[in-house]
Every structure is written in C-alpha cells, then in structure tokens.
Amino acid sequence: MARSISNIRKKRGRGRPKIGAVPVMVRLLPEQAARLDAWRKNSPDRPGRPEAIRRLIDSGLTSDKQKAEEASVLAARAADRVVDKTIPPKERERRKIALIKGPKEFRDIREDLPKPKKA
C-alpha cells in the first residue's frame, strides 16, 4: 500500500524548537514583581516580563566603562547640535570639548574622572 503523503521528511521532535537560549526560572517577591511591572509600563515599547528581565540584566551587567563611553557619545552628539557651525573646525572642536568636560570647578568634584597625581 502506498503512503498517503509522498514528501514525508524526518519526524520532528516534541516541544519547542531549540534556539540556543538557556531557560531560567526566576521567582520574584510580590514587591519585586510590582516594581518590574511599573518599569515595564514606563518603557516606551512595553516589553513583556521576560524581555524586561533580559533588558535589566543587560543594563546591570554593562560595565561602568561602557556606560561612560555611551554617555560620552551622547554628549558629543548633543554638543554637535549646540556648537555654532559657522566657526572654524578647530575652534568648534575646542568648544565641544569644553562643553563635555564642564567648568574646572566641577571637574574637581567629579568622581568618574581620575584624580590628578600630586607632585
């Protein structure tokens, strides 16, 4: 007797297909779940709980150096919009750096900058 379907391929297994992700079950206290849901509601795209947890883990594991680099890039973009485009490029770059670094009085109290070595 012939098969009813001629293009039968390898039988597929049961369950969800493997995508390389590691399943992790997390139990949250009610207060933690409420704070997570509040964070999700304030996000522009309103992610689900699993995606919100993934994003929070990524942001928590991002090093301070990476965060500082990202902040520097954002500050440079903002300074580009503010600095006068009619001045020469060298002066424009000097002003941009002055805007990003801030006044000397504030640089002395910033904790993210290395302290100058005393002679």
Give a written overview of the molecule.
- The structure is a single chain.
- The protein is an all-alpha fold.
- Among the domains are: 30-61; 64-107, no CATH class.
- Helices cover 52% and strands 0% of the residues.
- Helix 3 (64-82) packs across helix 4 (89-101).
- The termini are far apart.
- The mean pLDDT is 81.
Q: Please report the total strand number as a whole number.
A: 0
Provide the structure class. Answer: mainly alpha
Q: How large, in whole angstroms, is the Cα Rg? A: 26 Å
Helix content: 40-55%
Report the order of strands and helices. HHHHH
Could you give the distance between the termini? 95 Å
% residues in beta strands = under 5%
Low-pLDDT stretches: none
- What form results from the Cα inertia axes? elongated
Total number of helical segments? Answer: 5
Mean pLDDT: 81
Biggest sheet features: none
Structure, briefly:
The chain has 119 residues and is an all-alpha fold. The protein is built from 5 helices and no strands.
SSE layout and pairing:
Layout lengths: L29 H13 L6 H13 L2 H19 L6 H13 L2 H4 L12
Helix pairs in contact: 3-4
Features of this protein?
119 residues, mainly alpha, 5 helices, elongated
